[in-house]
Amino acid sequence: MAVVIINDTPVDIGTERLNLIQAAAKIGVFIPSYCWHPALSVVASCRMCLVEVGEKKPDGAIAMQPRVVPACQTPAKDGTVCITNSEKARTAEARTLEGLLLNHPLDCPVCDKAGECLLQDFSYQFGKSSSRMIDPKNTPPNKPDIGEHISLFTDRCIMCSRCVRFTREIAGSSELHVVNRGHHSEIDVFPGDPVNNPLAGNVVDLCPVGALANKEFLYKQRVWFLKNASSVCAGCSTGCSITIDHNKDVVHRIRPRENPQAQGHFICDEGRFDYPYVNSKDRFQQPMSAVATGGSPVAVQAGRLHHDTWENVIPTVRRELTNAAKQGGSEVAAVLSPMLTVEEAFLLAKFIKGLSADAKLYLGWVPTVGKDEQFPQDRKGNPMGPVKFTIRAEKCPNRRGVEEVLRHFQVELLGFDRLLANAGKLEALYLTAGYPPRLGAWLTDEQTKTLAKIPLLIVQDLAPSPISEAAKFVIPAATFAEKDGCYVNHANLAQQLHWAVRPGSMGRSDGQVFLYLLERRGLIQASALRQEIAREIPFFAALAGDLGEFGVKLG
Amino acid sequence: MPIAETDVRWVKAPTLGLLDRLYLPAIAQGLGTTIKHIFQPRVTQQFPEQRPDLPANYRGLHRLNRDTDGRVKCVACFMCSTACPARCIDIVAAPSPWPDREKYPEMFVIDELRCIYCGLCEQACPCDAIELTSMFDLTGLSREEMMFDKEKLLSVFDQTAGIGKDPVRTKGGKLSCASEPNVAGI
After folding, report:
1. Cα A387 versus chain centre, distance
2. What's the whole-number mean pLDDT along residues B162-183?
3. Measured between beta carbons, which residues in chain A are less than 8 angstroms from residue B93?
4. Which residues are within 8 A (CB) of A415 and not within 5 positions of it... i.e. 6 or more apart?
5. Do A218 and B95 touch (CB under 8 A)?
């Protein structure tokens, strides 16, 4: 048991291996730092975390070191004394900031980081408002092409080297380097070797100032206009915790949210930059039907899809499915996409099984691209050292959750290939998809033809495709940013999604559509549904409680 | 909640005396005021034939200033739209086409009908790019016409810059390269 004394307060840190920044954080004492990051190695180069350190001897005498030392590099051990609020420590902080600001341009009004910049925050909190620098500042040229998605504003850099350590220690590809010395040091890449590794976007989050910028987000919004929703990435089965930054129903940025249970501190570029489809105008904005449902304002040719209203489409779909189930329950089927949340899969399964106990439920197409990629990996793509991040080949977020829902409702777990084999016998099919367009066409022409022969084909998807053209009813699907619910990742970790944006003025979230079909009243309430699921399905018993920030392990 | 009887104070109308009831002294007093004004200097202005002489810090129609090269001075920092209590400033920023600055407004629209002419945008601007002029008689035939875009706001600058009634500049200082055109960056 180790007791550290922080500003006269003893802190029991047990057997944890912490540095003084972490030990001080335990009692809410904040020590500012730029270069230190819990996932990266310690370099103590920014000197922002200078504190007074000493040792309490066994006889009770306290011996302080004569100089201030960096807290990030000082291990917290039994008897360590750390003082952060003395005149000496405060002066060291202010002097360090003055040094960091010597060459930093005061272009906060045009800098994208302004508002979430650590240099701004610490200058305000610990620094002073004026500079004694009278010489012209260094203005090295910007490097807008340092990466496909990343731009470097070289003059704003404070040389914390977080980005350099990230490409070396987490990504492994080591593209970024510090070149030159002293006040002329710069972050740079070798000519013709930009930062394009699959985790490159993280250097933008790691950058404590506005030096590294995300080109997709550059100048789009000032950060103080953004609202945040905590969610889960739908890109692969790792299920990284993310924060969706949005404003006025437009998703502007996706950032990683630290989750030690899921992925750690980072996310991959595939998840980070694959959001424009959420904002796409090409998505279905309202339901469509190929039958005259009575409410259509335009004269409709038989067999042609036309825009329709929810008030018409929902009762018609319910009636037609009920009729089909009366004629033969086994001829009715539904495909539960692994893009659905657990709650949505449960509601749809309940609706279809409520029509007829013989109705069949199939697991939707599980997209798999290549092999799992593990990081850090060397320049040839071989993993090296302990795995710190994994991009999984399974490009859907909730296969495990949907599978467990299916196992509850029917003994045999039927895959998508089984559906294609049985499609000839089907009278009615409710097909949910919602795959991001990055995965490309997910049905071959032949498969589309097979499914198009089903007389009552209901397609719930994001955007027009050959299969939606062949459908009798098209229901707009919602993306991960528009859903409330939970996803279960590859390791049975159930994490909560909160909706960020609304699915268009005429759109409805998938769960809401299923509530309509089930003739349940009210708006979808994910937590109430989770309680219901936890009662009915033993695997999901843990969903009854609060999922918290990091999610809960199931099974 | 009803008002408590103790909180109510009843006030009686004052009773008029004989002179008050005659009205004649009051009429004479009124006539006196009228006659006095005949001999005083006139203050009424014959608007619109006669234009008012407004002080330089009058808060009227906005303008977007140009720098010495005739380019828009604004660097699209969004400080004005952040400060705006009426939420009437809409900016779309883009990387600037000029080498001496990084950002410029691709679109800059002020809804002059929504604006409350408080002048906070002018105070917030770090490079004196937006200013309120003394143009006050703003009219339009449609709502769209009153959405002033970048070109329209720059043309207000062209109209008002030379007439010698420039708005009072907020204190400048070296805040952006656009506010100091002779210094390339700071």
Report:
1. 20
2. 53
3. 219-220
4. A362, A363
5. yes
pLDDT of res. A295: 52
C-alpha to C-alpha distance for A349 and A359, rounded to whole angstroms:
10
DSSP A175-226: --EEES-GGG-EEE--TT--S-STTTTHHHHH-SSSSEEETTTTTT--GGG-
Confidence of residue B43 (pLDDT cuts 50, 70, 90): confident
Shortest CA gap A438–chain B (Å): 26
Residues of B with CB under 8 A from a CB of A: 75-79, 82, 93-95, 101-103, 126-127, 175-176, 185-186
Closest Cβ opposite residue B75 in set A110, A142, A218: A110
Annotated domain spans of chain A: 2-94, 108-273, 304-553
Chain B nearest CA to A141, separation (Å): 11
State which fold the A108-273 domain adopts. N-terminal domain of TfIIb (2.20.25)
Instruction: Note the CATH number of domain B62-163.
Output: 3.30.70.3270
Q: Which amino acid is at B90?
A: D
Among A298, A235, A325, which residue's Cα sits nearest to residue A272?
A235
Distance to chain A for B50, nearest Cα, Å: 42
CA max distance for chain B = 86
- Which CATH entry fits the domain spanning A2-94: 3.10.20.740, 3.40.50.300, 3.50.50.60, 3.40.50.12780? 3.10.20.740
Consecutive 10-residue runs of chain A (555 residues): their mean pLDDT?
92 93 95 95 94 92 94 94 94 92 89 93 87 86 93 94 95 94 92 93 95 94 95 94 95 95 94 94 91 56 76 93 90 94 96 92 93 91 90 95 94 90 90 92 90 93 92 94 94 95 90 94 92 95 92 90
Under CATH, what is the fold of the domain A304-553?
Rossmann fold (3.40.50)
Q: In chain A, what residues touch B75 (CB-CB under 8 Å)? A: 109-110
Q: Is the pLDDT of residue B176 over 70?
A: no
Q: Position of tokens 């400033």?
A: B89
Q: What is the pLDDT of residues B110-129, one digit of tens each?
A: 999 999 999 999 989 888 89
* pTM score of the predicted model: 0.87
Task: List CB contacts (< 8 A) between A218 and chain B.
Answer: 95
Q: What is the ipTM of this complex?
A: 0.82
Instruction: Name the residue in chain B with its Cα closest to that of A111.
Output: B77
